[in-house]
Structures are given as structure tokens and as C-alpha cells.
Amino acid sequence: MTNLNNQTNKKYKSGFISIIGRPNVGKSTFLNRVIGQKIAIMSDKPQTTRNKVQGVLTLDDAQMIFIDTPGIHKPKHKLGDFMMKVAQNTLKEVDLVLFMINAEEGIGRGDEFIIEKLKSVKTPVFLVINKIDLVHPDELLRIIETYKEKLDFKAVVPISALQGNNVETLLTQIQEFLPEGPQYYPADQVTDHPERFIISELIREKALHLTREEIPHSIAVLIDSIKRAENSENTIHVMATIIVERDSQKGIVIGKQGKMMKEIGQRARVDIENLLGSRVFLELWVKVQKDWRNKANQLRDYGFRDDEY
């Protein structure tokens, strides 16, 4: 790709784009739509994304590296502090910021908080109004005016990440704002995260969907091993441990006669097979680590390292 560009006079553009917004505005849905496959987990429960997830879109004349950040919220534990540090630090290291809002929801304190942070950002900021398929077109003008009074956005783009409406228009406008630069990643690479991380996230996504109440935010997933099955060259054996904070949560995750655990495993296995392009034998375990979200050493063990940001 880069060599081809050297043979022509066409200027290659590249850059890093942060997607920021309140929890559950559709950041991960947008990232998966743009990349064309699932690399960020989706859930109707807020604060699903915990680490920053980088997705890479390579075009003939540009490469866009999108950073999906945890939704802005008031931290309630050390894990929450980590998530906020990740979200805010990405604003300092990118070429463009996409401030995504939910067209269905009015402006709230979370949006006001983000706007205050964005006022000190020197890079261009786009307002991306997501979920426009859920509101009447007449509502859009009111939404746009409300937000434009708060901040001078370089562009305002209404989209539906789920339906794909106007996403190509947004990508075109993003490319216009990117600086000239190199191709950072190979053309066929869609994320900078290792497969181990994505597999753990896919398992956590299924647990989020299937469990209730206090369970989802108490869950972490550790991948114990990924290896070729001894009895089959075409099968990959994945062993993973679901971490919870209390014995009662362990019982819920396992379910009556192991039914919940089986359902989590079956659903996760389908996505993991799509990711790896192989048959997968998925073996799940559940372990209790009391109050792990408030323990710095366990947060590091589970991949939440704030010294990387």
C-alpha cells in the first residue's frame, strides 16, 4: 500500500480518531460498523467498554485508527477511575475527536462534563449525532442548535451506526481533516489488540447479555490458554475463567445445573470461531475474587494498566 502511494503523486493521509461520549451512545456499534467486523463488544448496559479499543480502517489513500473509549461517568471504584483516565487521556494523543451523542436523549450532565473537557482540546472536534433512525427529522435541527451553542464543532454529522445511515459521509469528512502521514498498520490488520484480548471480551459480552442486576459490572474474563486441540488440527482449545466478586454471583453465572454457563459458552464460541476462522472448543470456569474492582494488583492482572496511558 505505501509503496503504491510512493509511485503516485497522491498524498496519503493517516491519523488517530478518538470516539468519546456518554455510556451507551453507540460508540462500539459505530466502530464495528466502520471496521466491518466485531472488535468491540456491544451491550445495552452502560460502561461496557473498559479499555480503549483501537480499530484500523485502511483505504487506498488513507488509514484511520479509531479509538473507542469507555463512556464518561462518575467513578465508583478503582476500575472506574482507570476507565475515566483512559477516556480523558486519549484526547491528548489524537488528530481528531468524535463527540458522539444519542439523538434520543436530551443533553445531560455527562454531556456538559465532556464539553467542558473538549473546550481545552486543540484538535478538531466533530459532533456525531447517533441513532437518528429513532427520532423524527425535525428533532435534529433542535439537537444541533442546542449543542452548537455549547461548542464550536468543526463538523456536525447525524448518523445511524446500527443502520449504517450517513456513516460513509462521516468517514469522508474525517479523511479531509486528517494530516498527511504514513500507513501505521498493515492493510489487513483491523485492530492493535491481540486475539486473546478480543476473545476475553467476546466471552464477557455474552455474560453481560445473559446476566442481570449487579452481575455485569462485577465480571472480568481471563484467558488461561489458547492452543490447538490435541485430537484435531482444525480445532482450537480455549480455556477461560470468568471472575466475579461474590459467591452469590458465581452461582448466578453458573446457573441451575450449569445452564447459564453453558449458554454463555455456546454464544461466545460462535463469535470466537468467526474471529479465528477455526472450530473452537471453549472451556469456561468461574472464580470469586472479592472486591477485585478496588484492588490495584488485581486490576493489573486483569489487563487494566493505567501506566500505559
Structure description:
The chain is α/β, with parallel strands linked by helices and 309 residues long. It has 2 domains: 2-177, Rossmann fold, CATH 3.40.50.300; 195-308, 2-Layer Sandwich (GMP Synthetase, Chain A, domain 3). It contains 10 helices and 9 strands. The protein has helices spanning 2-6, 27-35, 78-89, 109-118, 137-148, 167-177, 195-210, 247-254, 259-276, 296-301, and strands at 13-21, 53-58, 62-68, 96-102, 125-130, 155-158, 220-228, 235-244, 279-288. The strands form 2 sheets. A 6-stranded mixed β-sheet has the order 2-3-1-4-5-6, sandwiched between helices. A 3-stranded mixed β-sheet has the order 7-8-9. Helix 7 packs antiparallel against helix 9. It is globular.
Summarize the SSE layout with pairings.
Layout: H1 2-6, E1 13-21, H2 27-35, E2 53-58, E3 62-68, H3 78-89, E4 96-102, H4 109-118, E5 125-130, H5 137-148, E6 155-158, H6 167-177, H7 195-210, E7 220-228, E8 235-244, H8 247-254, H9 259-276, E9 279-288, H10 296-301
Parallel strand pairs: 1-3, 1-4, 4-5, 5-6, 8-9
Antiparallel strand pairs: 2-3, 7-8
Characteristics of this structure?
3-stranded mixed β-sheet; disordered N terminus; globular; alpha/beta; GMP Synthetase, Chain A, domain 3; 2 domains; Rossmann fold; 309 residues; 10 helices; 6-stranded mixed β-sheet; single chain; 35% helix
Please tell me how large the radius of gyration is: 20 Å
Strand arrangement, major sheet: 2-3-1-4-5-6
Indicate the CATH topology of the largest domain: Rossmann fold
Order of helices and strands: HEHEEHEHEHEHHEEHHEH
Number of distinct helices = 10
Helix content: 25-40%
Morphology: globular
Q: Describe the biggest sheet?
A: 6 strands, mixed
Mean pLDDT: 80
Say which CATH homologous superfamily of the largest domain is assigned. Answer: P-loop containing nucleotide triphosphate hydrolases
Number of domains: 2
